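call fold(seq) -> C-alpha cells
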Amino acid sequence: MSFFENTRKPVGFGGKIMVAMMNFGHSAMAAWGLHFLQPALDAMVLDCGCGGGANIKTMLKLCPKGKVQGIDYSAVSVEKARKVNAGAIAAGQCTVQQASVAELPFETEQFDVVTAFETVYFWPELAQNFREVYRVLKPGGTFFICNEANGETAKDDKWTQIINGMTIYTDADLKVYLEQAGFGRVQSHKNKKGWLCVTAQK
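ret:
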C-alpha cells in the first residue's frame, strides 16, 4: 500500500502520520469553507469522515452550546480525533466513533448540520450515502461539503491515479447526487486554489 492510500483509510504508523498531516494541512481550506456555514451556537453537528479531529475542534468552538459528534471508518483516525478532543469528550460535548457513512449509527432527524471535509471522494455509493446524511438531518438542516479539489484542474487527475478508489467530483456532479437524495437549495463556492464548498438544505 502506498503512503497516499492513507488519505482514504489511515492505518498503522503511516496512517498516524497522515492524520496529523491532514489536521495541519487542511486547516486553511476548512477555515475558508466555514465562511459559508453559520451554525447556531447550540447546533447538533455530525462530522462524517472526521479524520484527525481538527474540524470537530473547530465546530465545537462555533457551537459552544451544542454537541459535535464524529465518525470515521479508520481506527487510527478515531484514536487521533479522540485525543485532539479529549476535553470536550470528557465534558459530554463530543463523541467520536468508528462507523461508515453507508450506515450511520444515529436516529433519524438528529442533526442540524452534517459536515464532510475532504472525504466524499472516498464514499463508496454517493447517492445512497447522501440519502443516509439526509435521513439523520433535521428538516431544514444543512449538509456541508468542503473539498480541496473541484474536479476542474489537471492536477486532480494525478491524485485519482495515485489513490485507489478516489473520485473527484465537480460541483455540478455533487448537485445531481444531492438533489437525487432529496436535498434542495444547493449552493457552491469555489476559489482560485481550486477549493470547493457545497451546501445543501433538507
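The radius of gyration is 16 Å.
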